[in-house]
Amino acid sequence: MRSTLRYSFPIWALALLLAVGLGTRTGAQNTGNEIAVVDLDKAINATEQGKAAREELSRKKRTAEQELEPMVDRFKSLQKEIEDKRFVWNEDKLRAKQLDLAELQNKIENKQKELEGQLKVDYERLVGPLRTKISNIVEEIGKDQSFTMVIERNTPGLLYTRETLDITDVVIQRFNKQG
Question: Residue 84 in contact with residue 146, Cβ under 8 Å?
């Protein structure tokens, strides 16, 4: 019996410590150990600056796709030509066309990687400062309202949260007031 108590006590104690230490909002009672949740992506997308950034990124993506389109069309055309004439051409011509196709495929893949890298840079340039500003606002709200912690909604491991813990709308309002 004694060994059973010895092993079950820490689990019970841990559960009690978590219940008391973390706490949750309980009406007007403020224990100083409160948790809030914020959806940073939603907050960014809800601001005018975030919407403008999203529109600019969409334009850049369309431009990148248009830049790749002629290369992809040429690839498809060459691929069809090889399929249609593979039995008509001699081995040397067929091999040369297949090498041309492989070279074009490599160029397309390299261009895609380059454009994707540029889009990531553009994203960070446009959204990074907004994310920083919104993170600072979250920190201010956390301090003002005595939250022990504010967790990002999309954090791995966060499976459920009550909507009353979500401060995203408050963050958006404060961001819009600051301009």
Answer: no
The CA-atom distances, in angstroms, between 39 and each of 18, 102, 140 are 24, 44, 16
8 A C-beta contact, residue 162 and residue 36:
no
Helix (H) or strand (E) holding 132: helix 91-144
The string of DSSP codes covering 25-80 is: -BTTB--S-EEEEE-HHHHHHHSHHHHHHHHHHHHHHHHHHHHHHHHHHHHHHHHH
Residues 97-152 pLDDT 10s: 999 999 999 999 999 999 999 999 999 999 999 999 999 999 999 999 889 899 89
Q: Which residues of 14-39 are buried (b: 16+ CB within 10 A; e: fewer)?
A: eeeeeeeeebebeeeeeeeebebbbb
DSSP state of 163: G
